[in-house]
Amino acid sequence: MDARFASIGGTGIGEGAALGRFHWLSARPSVRREEVQRTPEEEETRFRQAQARAGAALDALYAESRSAVGEDAAQIFAVHAMIAADEDFTDLVVARIGAGDTAETAVIAAADTLAARFREMEDEYLRARAADFADIAARLCDILDADGAGTGEPPLPDWPEPIILAAQDLSPSQTVGLDRSRIAGFVTGAGSPGSHTAILARSLGLPALVGAHLLDEMTARALEGRQVLLDAAAGRLTVDPTPEEQAAIRAREAAARAAEQARYALVDCPAETRAGKRILLCANIGLPSEAHEAAALGADGVGLMRSEFLYLGRVAPPGEEEQFTAYCTAAEALGDRMLVIRTLDIGADKQADYLGLPPEENPALGLRAIRLCLARRPLFRVQLRAICRAAGRRPGQIAVMFPMICAPHELDEAIAELREVQADLRRAGEPVDERMAVGMMIETPAAALLADTFAPRCAFFSIGSNDLTQYTLAVDRQNNAVAPLAVDAHPAVLTLIARTAAAIHAVGGWCGLCGELAADPTMTETLLAMGIDELSVSPSQLLRIKERVREIGELPQTETKEEPIWNTRFLPR
Ligand code: PEP
Ligand code: MG
What we know:
Elements: E1 7-9, E2 11-13, E3 17-24, H1 40-69, H2 71-85, H3 87-98, H4 103-119, H5 124-128, H6 130-145, E4 163-167, H7 172-175, E5 183-188, H8 196-204, E6 208-210, H9 217-223, E7 227-231, E8 236-239, H10 243-263, E9 280-285, H11 290-296, E10 301-306, H12 320-333, E11 338-342, H13 369-375, H14 377-393, E12 398-402, H15 408-427, E13 438-442, H16 445-449, H17 451-454, E14 460-463, H18 465-473, H19 491-506, E15 510-513, H20 524-529, E16 534-537, H21 542-551, H22 567-570
Parallel strand pairs: 3-4, 4-5, 5-6, 9-10, 9-16, 10-11, 11-12, 12-13, 13-14, 14-15, 15-16
Antiparallel strand pairs: 1-8, 2-6, 3-7, 7-8
Phosphoenolpyruvate (PEP) binds at residues 199, 304, 306, 345, 443, 464-467, 514-515.
């Protein structure tokens, strides 16, 4: 075989390994490989039928989302419907078909040509429309590929073996619709340990390789369908592994499974240190179905429901009823345990095309999370109504928290919107949980530095150490080139964490931590010593962290100003 492909290095996520067949998930619409011979007239008919179907689907989406989220958010579908029916676009496609292209190839080429034209335009709004052409092409190709029955979700190949899913960059919206039970591991050319591919892999307990060196479209095509061994501990993907390599990995995985099995004995034990300090050990989930697993693994509740996962991988936002059902389902699965729902955190690496957000130079510093919600009130209100109605059904169980708060007025505006929603529900005779806990995430240095100001307005804080690290250390969590600098146990980050915990304790509230730092067993003792009351981790990490908590004895004293306990490990000597 070509020596270039013998193995590919990268940053391993997790310690596991997996064998499977390599599948590349292209970000671009793909052209059907087994092409049937058709005349240009037949191809043109296929195109025109697909165009009509796409137009009808987009009109329906426009009408549906206009009543659910308002005119602004729905506009994108009207724009897409116009592009799909556009005369220039149609002429270009038909000309290419006349020159011998299939409908799929012609659609992609025409969309590329028009996108290039739009990219050159002066007007910022029109420049931003360039990206819409790829969306339209993908929609049309999906319909053409499935002879009209396309779903828009990237399909997995029909192989009996597990799949090692590879992509240049795997966005949450790409992964949310996939049949995860068939995936044995992830490989991405981009990404870093803080990226959402890494978070997803950890939450599924699957190995991953991010920032995979030399993984580009060309290499990937050569690897499609080949057997590969993904070893996260070694940070390596081996192509066509030898029988000896396979046997060694199988033995290692069996030993790891046995160790995990042994930890099951802890499921019903409390997360309590040997010295009797009890903390809450909760789970991070994306979809309501994951709440079952959290409960089965003995979590004290869900400390972070990333509600944006309900919004990804689809063509319109979920309506109020759908969200209400999702939140009730998650809460029911947890029995009487706590469910903390984080309001929509879209933006940065989590994009939903239907929102029609213009591309940003620095999306992590852009219109994300609470900023987007405060700018799109109808979208925010739909979610708040769903959360408040679910909380009304299950009083005392559901809490809400707001992400990416930087300034007090943002928290005030979010709470005011929540109170208005509750007042509306009360007027309509719906049950309202009058004491629903309201908290905020501490994800920016500004929030941590102003923790004293925020604390009296909150029942709790939950520290998002992934973003707090990114913003404190100026390290892009998506960029593998700077990943070694993203030390979430950096003294600057730990100082902010300690300050946050002290501020909320001073007003009688509690402090959680739900970033990846919570799942690092080497940091558990430090976090507990700094006053963290709740740790929220991926379900796959729950037992590991519980095991660690139960090993800890007396906690070190953190109040001594001269030598904070974290200094001994992380400050230069
Ligand atoms: C965080 O930033 O630590 C966090 C938990 O939120 P997310 O990873 O979804 O940005
Ligand atoms: Mg975050």
